[in-house]
Amino acid sequence: MKFDRNSLLLYAITDRTWLNGKSLAGEVEKVLQAGATFLQLREKDLDKEHFLREAKEIKKLTDRYHVPFVINDDVEVAIACGADGVHVGQSDMQARDLRQLFGPDKIIGVSARTVEQARIAKESGADYVGVGAVFGTTTKKDANQVTFEELKEICASVEIPVVAIGGINETNLMQLKGSGIDGISMISAIFAKPDAAAATKNLLALAKAMKEA
Questions:
Q1: Residue 42 annotated as catalytic
Q2: Is 60 part of the annotated catalytic residue set?
Q3: Number of domain units in the chain
Q4: Active site residue 111
Q5: The one catalytic residue among 7, 30, 42, 188
Q6: How many angstroms separate the CA atoms of 209 and 178, rounded?
Q7: Catalytic: which of 7, 59, 106, 111?
Q8: Considering 56, 119, 140, 152, which one is annotated as catalytic?
Q9: Grouped pLDDT means (10 residues each) for the chain, 213 residues
Q10: Contacts of 202 (CB under 8 A, 6+ apart)
C-alpha cells in the first residue's frame, strides 16, 4: 500500500462506542467512500479472536479503497491480519523493535508529545508521528495538551510526516493552519456523528483548506 505525506491528510480512527447498534465495517466503508485517506483500527476492550476477525474484515475494505490501514497497539493482530502497519504509544514497543518484526515495508506510527519523543521515534525507524492532544479530548482523559507552538516546533524538528490528534473537529480544525502538520486525525468528529460520511466529506474539505492556507 502506497504511503506518503498525503496519506495522512484525513486520518480516521475507529471507536465502537459511538456505533449505537450500527456495524463498524459499514461505518468504516462510508468513511472510506467519503474520502478518508488513512484508517486506524482501535480496540481497547475486544478480545483477540474478535479483534482479529474484525481487523481482517476492515482490511478488505481498506484494500478496496486503496487506503493505508494500521492497527492500534496490537502487534500480533497487525501481523495476523496483514495490516499495512501499526501505531503505538510511548509506553508500547519501540519503533526499532517493531521494524525488526515487520520488515522495511510496513508503516510504523508513534505517538509523541515533545520534540525529543518525535526525534527518538524518527531515529528508531518510525514513518510518522501522531502529536497530541492538540485540543481537549474525551477519548484519552489523561492526555496532556500540546500547544500550537509546541506542535509547530515538533513539525520543524523531524523530516517524517506529522499528524495532529486530540479534540480536533470542524469548529477548531482551521486553528492548526501554519503549524506544519501533514494531516489531522479524528475519532469522535467522524464516528460520533449521525452521518459519518457527511462528516468525513466536510472534514476533508476543511483539512485541504487548512493545508493550503
A1: yes
A2: no
A3: 1
A4: yes
A5: 42
A6: 11
A7: 111
A8: 140
A9: 93 95 97 98 95 98 98 96 96 88 94 97 96 84 84 98 97 97 98 97 98 86
A10: 170
